[in-house]
Design a protein that fits this description.
membrane, elongated, about 60 residues, transmembrane, transmembrane helix, mainly alpha, 3 helices
Length: about 60
């Protein structure tokens, strides 16, 4: 899944940057690109364990 998310995120950022420097800016394309990037970031960061996970496990026991 990770191998699909990262290229999609790179494509979304590329589209957003291209729209930013173009003469006619389309706000809707930029918003969609940013939303796609943020959803990808949420999916990638959901798999990262918390730093406090060991402390939380010790408190439960």
């Amino acid at each position: 899944m990770k191998k699909y998310i990262i290229p999609i995120m790179i494509l979304a950022i590329t589209v957003a940057l291209y729209e930013q420097v173009s003469a006619e800016k389309n706000v809707y394309i930029m918003v969609v690109a940013i939303v796609v990037f943020m959803i990808g970031m949420m999916q990638l960061s959901a798999k990262t364990p918390s730093k406090n996970q060991e402390k939380e496990d010790e408190n439960v026991q």
